[in-house]
Amino acid sequence: MFFERAEGGEQAVLVHVDFFSQQDREDVDEFIDLATSAGVTIRHLLRGSRNAPNPKSFIGSGKLEELQAVVQAEEANVVLFNHTLSPSQQRNLEAQLECRVIDRTGLILDIFAQRARTHEGQLQVELAQLQYVSTRLVRGWTHLERQKGGIGLRGPGETQLETDRRLIRDRIKSIQRRLDKVKKQRDQGRRSRNRAEVPTVAIVGYTNAGKSTLFNHITDADVYAADQLFATLDPTLRRIELPGIGPVVLADTVGFIRHLPHRLVDAFKATLEETVEADLLVHVVDSAAEERLDNIDQVNEVLREIGADEKPQLMVYNKIDLLGNVEPKIDTDADGVAQRVWVSARQGSGIGQLLDALASRLATGVWRGQVSLPPNFGQLRAQLFALHAIETESWDEQGNQLLDVCISAADIRRLEKQMVFDWQALVV
């Protein structure tokens, strides 16, 4: 990793400001969860309210003096803001407080740096970090500034600040080239799935909604799952079999959060493309969270940003074990189409209903009926059995095989192409 994290045991003071504008408001409880996930020790939470941020120091002079006193009293070595700071605001605060100041974006980046486990994930995080820090380089090397002309007054030619910027630009280009290779590999795998016409289902949702626990139950995988924000950072793909549908690719993706930094969205576009290209989105919601409706809106906002807002969604209300007397169930619309499934991923209840709902939502391209196979169509019969498409089998008086079949339209087209026949000519 390009940037090394500071050693653990950091003593932090948290700053949260309530603005009258709903658009600028952040959730203080979520902020505390973010700080805890970053591994700091919270010494104090300083709250305030303003109409608008102070251009120089974000908070007012009186609140800044109060913050300075708290930092000194608590012997804190880092101050975390639950807001996005401009580079100048961050520098002014650090100069006044004489300790590190990190805004909400920097805090989320730090958590991402801790969670990234794959090489691709680490590259994406480093790219976001570099793009973030490139705007916040300070002139800490003034002794190397370029001097005016004249004997004995000529400088080294390039200031340390310019050197840092050039190194960062070169590193960003290098990472982007490597991520482009990863993107090509992903595109190749996606094209292969498209050729085989295997449907893809992407699990999306607010961070810590229980997506990975649900993913593990469905696929028998061992994806890391924990009760913390951004436990999952790296996408995981698994192949499952759905009755009447056949093979389906299930993708577990990074959790979303309110006001997700745009540079993170940009850096993780290769990962988020699994969501954009999916045939169906499984939107997991923490049903026990008081702010669940707001969280749903925030997820849909991110989906709009990445161009996936038009994708069909199946809502999954997770953690019903925390609600009391709610049983696993499927809610359907007036046409009988599954819209919501109530489950508890931790207890494993409702998984069967979820799989049924997935099969029904993906069954729009499924053909069900009876076909008659002449005796010389044994190879097609074997292929249908291999696809688990035959429900019942009988014979007529002419020795033709009568098969009750449930098969996807994609498999029909593939068989017609491989074996050169007309499916409709076999339909009874």
UniProtKB/TrEMBL annotation:
Q: Which GO terms describe its cellular component?
A: cytoplasm
**Would the keyword Cytoplasm be found if you checked this record's keyword annotation?**
yes
Q: Per its Swiss-Prot or TrEMBL entry, what cofactor is needed?
A: Mg(2+)
Pfam families cross-referenced by the UniProt entry? GTP-bdg_M, GTP-bdg_N, MMR_HSR1
Main localization, broad class: cytoplasm
Provide the binding site for GTP: 205-212, 230-234, 252-255, 318-321, 344-346
Q: Which annotated residues bind Mg(2+)?
A: 212, 232
The superkingdom of the source organism is Bacteria
- Which of UniProt's keywords are assigned here? Coiled coil, Cytoplasm, GTP-binding, Magnesium, Metal-binding, Nucleotide-binding
Subunit relationships? Monomer. Associates with the 50S ribosomal subunit.
By sequence similarity, the record places it as follows:
Belongs to the TRAFAC class OBG-HflX-like GTPase superfamily. HflX GTPase family.
Protein name (record): GTPase HflX
Query: What organism is recorded for this protein?
Result: BD1-7 clade bacterium
Gene label: hflX
